[in-house]
Amino acid sequence: MMRKLLPALFVALAVVSCGRKASQSKLPNYPKVDSLMKVMTLEEKIGQTVLFTSDWSVTGPSMRPGYLDDIRAGRCGNLLNAHTADFTREVQRIAVEETRLGIPILFGFDVIHGFRTIFPINLGMSASWDIDAIRRSAQIAAEEAAAAGLQWTYSPMCDISVEPRWGRISEGSGEDPYLGSLIAAAMVEGYQGDDLSKDNTILACVKHFAAYGAPQAGRDYNTVDMSERWLREFYLPPYKAAVDAGALSVMASFNELDGVPAHASAHLMQDILRGEWGFEGFVVSDYTGIMEMIHHGYAKDLADAGRLSINAGLDMDMMAASYMNHMKELVESGRVSMKTVDDACRRILNVKAALGLFDDPYKYCDTEREKERTLTDENKAFARRFSAESMVLLKNNGILPLKKGEKVAVMGPLANSKDDLLGSWRGAGEVKSVPASVLDAVKEVTPVGDGASKVILVIGEPWSWTGEAASRSSIKVPEEQIALLRQLKKQGKKVAVVLMNGRPLDLSEESELADAILEAWYPGTMGGYAVADVLFGDVNPSGKLTVTFPRNLGQVPIYHYAKNTGRPYVHPEAKYESRYLDVPNEPLYAFGHGLSYTTFGYSDITLDKTSFKGADVLKARVTVTNTGDREGTETVQMYIRDLVGSVTRPVRQLKGFERITLAPGESREVEFTIDRETLSFYRQDMTWGAESGDFDIFIGTASNCTKNASFTYEI
Ligand code: GLC
């Protein structure tokens, strides 16, 4: 009788209590959660803190064959790597109808750059600098994923990185905290919308918390060690922006930070995430991350690891089975308090309530909606435009755009690959959904044959060389690809190189030999057509690098917000200055670099005042003119340098940008507002704020722009 009564009770209560929407950052109290908590056993509460993978796809080093039995027994309340409306409906039925309390399963999946319609990899998306398009891509991904039984994505990946050896630099938004923060917030808004209980929005997950993008030697999972100042100034902002945008889950990172694995860092999860940022959602481990603290040498066994994690604020155990196997004994022995388990369980149930799962556990499992909403013509048309927008024209001596109808050769190991277009973390994207490779797409617009004088050479990295557990000790393309380029140039060919890759590459030889270089990243489902659209001028490229491309690995780490040092390299022949003997200090391609098929002229910068103070603001203006013969989009970038501070300050920091589209000959004034917050940083006493002093402002087409003006600020 008890069993039969309870589900009916919850449905009734759910209708009353879950009508309220989760606000963007705060969760309301759900009376139904309260009533559940009152009747749940310790084992059932622990079950809600357990996340296992199905056997649909493998995203980590272990599997859990008996996950359905775990669900039936109430030992597992959450499942990852399982989708489709049909499959999730059956698993949900087991949870709702075959367990004592019928608490619905939360289904999660890595929807990183699209679900079925795959967009460019995130490093590519970021190169569009198009925040609205990035938000729209997350919305489409959410619509497609929510139609396939999913309520939770392990995205946005907010890891800043200046480490091209690291395979996962492909998954993030590059090196800049200002741009990365805007992108992180936009993706959360796109995924979660204004109401998590809608059937086309999904729960975002801020990962990997924190500073996973700074592994020593660029080797995945390796040690991360940096000052608190550097962490807060350059690595934490995108995570915070995502939390401020309302993300209700966070994933801990595999790395240690300052000697403490993030999976047991109370400093990260309690002091900063919950204490300073007011985060109210739940924290999930990464795949077996809790168990890995044994390898870190931080926990002596799986029980100890579980104790350390949950007491540090980690609510859900992905795949380590530490909480499932040891939490009951940890509570009964007093090493973990009942309140700690209650808090973890409640946070998870609150999010399930916010998703509307108690109102209708099957609302996301609709096969008709699944068919209607995925891979629609509208989604594919958007993907094609967005993919072209993400591409960066690194070099062009005039060979591009190519002329339709003029015979070209198309060569290179990636020219006819549909698989590589999708990149890593391709969600439920399938090669069979890719309509054209680059070769296919070029053939549709012009004759293709090898006797041609112009060659499109598609080279780079196979997609498996990027993403998780894919660090490289070299950042060059394979030697045989460069040899092919050398050969073509020896034959007097004009060569447009199309790059498909997921990291900054050492292009020092290619940049000398190629007549043009188009950085296409892994451009997604519609990427073959998007590459052709750019090569033949249907789209004028507008992408800008969001990560610095070095001349060689020896320059790494190299990034635009570097410090000046006490011996800046300013005298070409000087010895005792910070320089190399064999290469210049400047990168091959700077952060913010990207060419167009037109040209843009910049006026001098005008300031509405040369000094301001307190809460006043200063306006900086520049007039940009399209000085070429075709319409183009330019990302006008604004950088600030604080000349003297209580700690040393970067020579450039991105503090604003605006994308503008100009017709040939058209001019437009672009205005940036500088205020106290623009100038704020972690001062020597680690307080956040501005300081009085002199500043330079730079506005231009890339981080190495030289047009500047100066002003003074007084706090
Ligand atoms: C992986 C990744 C993480 C992903 C998770 C689930 O190990 O580190 O980014 O979300 O496992 O697939």
List keywords for this structure.
five-stranded mixed β-sheet; globular; about 725 residues; alpha/beta; TIM Barrel; five-stranded parallel β-sheet; single chain; disordered N terminus; binds alpha-D-glucopyranose; 3 domains; Immunoglobulin-like; Rossmann fold
Q: What's this, in brief?
A:
The protein has 715 residues and is of the alpha/beta class. The protein is built from 21 helices and 26 strands.
Assign the CATH topology of the largest domain: TIM Barrel
CATH superfamily of the largest domain: Glycoside hydrolase, family 3, N-terminal domain
What is the averaged pLDDT score?
Answer: 95
Number of strands: 26
User: Mind telling me which CATH architecture of the largest domain this is?
Assistant: Alpha-Beta Barrel
